[in-house]
Amino acid sequence: QVDVAAMVRLFGYVDVTDTGFIVAVLSIAFNPLFWNVVARWEHKTRALSQVFGSPRAACYCLGAVILVLNCVRSHCFTEAMKSQPKLEGWDFHWTYYSGLAISAVGTLFVISSFLALGFTGTFLGDYFGILMEEKVTSFPFSVLDNPMYWGSTAIYLGWSLMHASPAGLLLTAVVAISYTIAVLYEGPFTEEIYRQKQKGVKSK
């Protein structure tokens, strides 16, 4: 059971009306919305592929924009944490090293996901018509679904613990929610793309 009193005490440290906190929430929510809207628009119109001369070049450009936006998100997240108080009972070595370990695991999932998928596989290449030959089942996909998203969430969780930051923990929850929505939005659409690919192969 959730200790409601502890949750109320924890988030009593967070000023959700602070400008930096609001900017961080908006940046967290914006990123997956942006890449899903743009990628679906590209899948429907092929407009970016036409502008950049090829699907691969367009995908690389979108990936670069996503990376920049993720850096902005991380900066906003960190600034929001720094502007709000720490939780006194958590500002100890054990909390710091626990957070460091969680961030390290998250980084492992993110990097290994990227290596398994490649650049285009990571940055929505299938929406550009750059399809993988088969589903990736090697680590970390053998451990959990969507390891890139949950690895990223773990990094933010660890970062928040390292800073003993209630604001960071609340923002991490926003990250988890935004990724959960993204998975629900992306999953069926991506499956349909590969289903159409299989139909095309069988019809030949």
UniProtKB/TrEMBL annotation:
Pfam families: PEMT. The keyword Endoplasmic reticulum applies. The keyword S-adenosyl-L-methionine applies. GO terms for cellular component: endoplasmic reticulum membrane. The chain crosses the membrane at residues 20-37, 95-124, 165-185. It is a multi-pass membrane protein. It catalyses: 1,2-di-(9Z,12Z-octadecadienoyl)-sn-glycero-3-phospho-N,N-dimethylethanolamine + S-adenosyl-L-methionine = 1,2-di-(9Z,12Z-octadecadienoyl)-sn-glycero-3-phosphocholine + S-adenosyl-L-homocysteine + H(+); 1-hexadecanoyl-2-(4Z,7Z,10Z,13Z,16Z,19Z-docosahexaenoyl)-sn-glycero-3-phospho-N,N-dimethylethanolamine + S-adenosyl-L-methionine = 1-hexadecanoyl-2-(4Z,7Z,10Z,13Z,16Z,19Z-docosahexaenoyl)-sn-glycero-3-phosphocholine + S-adenosyl-L-homocysteine + H(+); 1,2-di-(9Z,12Z,15Z-octadecatrienoyl)-sn-glycero-3-phosphoethanolamine + S-adenosyl-L-methionine = 1,2-di-(9Z,12Z,15Z-octadecatrienoyl)-sn-glycero-3-phospho-N-methylethanolamine + S-adenosyl-L-homocysteine + H(+); 1,2-di-(9Z-octadecenoyl)-sn-glycero-3-phospho-N-methylethanolamine + S-adenosyl-L-methionine = 1,2-di-(9Z-octadecenoyl)-sn-glycero-3-phospho-N,N-dimethylethanolamine + S-adenosyl-L-homocysteine + H(+). It comes from the Eukaryota. Keywords: Endoplasmic reticulum, Lipid biosynthesis, Lipid metabolism, Membrane, Methyltransferase, Mitochondrion, Phospholipid biosynthesis, Phospholipid metabolism, S-adenosyl-L-methionine, Transferase, Transmembrane, Transmembrane helix. Its EC number is 2.1.1.17, 2.1.1.71. Pathway: Lipid metabolism; Phospholipid metabolism; phosphatidylcholine biosynthesis. GO terms for biological process: methylation; phosphatidylcholine biosynthetic process. Its main location: endoplasmic reticulum. It is an enzyme of class 2 (transferase). GO terms for molecular function: phosphatidyl-N-methylethanolamine N-methyltransferase activity; phosphatidylethanolamine N-methyltransferase activity. It is found in: Endoplasmic reticulum membrane. Coiled coil: none annotated. This is Phosphatidylethanolamine N-methyltransferase. It comes from Myiagra hebetior.
